């Protein structure tokens, strides 16, 4: 695992907030209030290499048995480009994003439209269309 940010560090998800006010509490177990906040916390988890959180936040119907984030990939920033539903009173939502990274072959971008579902008070990542 990479170094977890302190609560006063800027959050890896590019929200402009501190880790302690943004993704930190969600990664620690607080429910995400929206699909976008879950998306941001998952990006932060990728950035710090927190595979257990990524698995916990993945819907059981689509969750892989094992997740081993590439230690050579450094996630740089996240931009939310669109969202539909996914609010505090919704049960489904989509979040489109661009995530920049750097790996052994250079710099790149991941573009995805992710689907989320809420069960009870918890949002889960379901799947996504890359492109």
Automatic annotation (TrEMBL):
Native source organism of the sequence: Microbacterium bovistercoris
Domain YchJ-like middle NTF2-like span(s) in chain numbering: 34-128
Protein's name in the database: UPF0225 protein DY023_10145
Family of this protein: Belongs to the UPF0225 family.
Family annotation (HAMAP family): UPF0225 (MF_00612)
InterPro entries assigned to the protein according to its UniProt record, in alphabetical order: NTF2-like_dom_sf (IPR032710), SEC_C_motif (IPR004027), YchJ-like (IPR023006), YchJ-like_M (IPR048469)
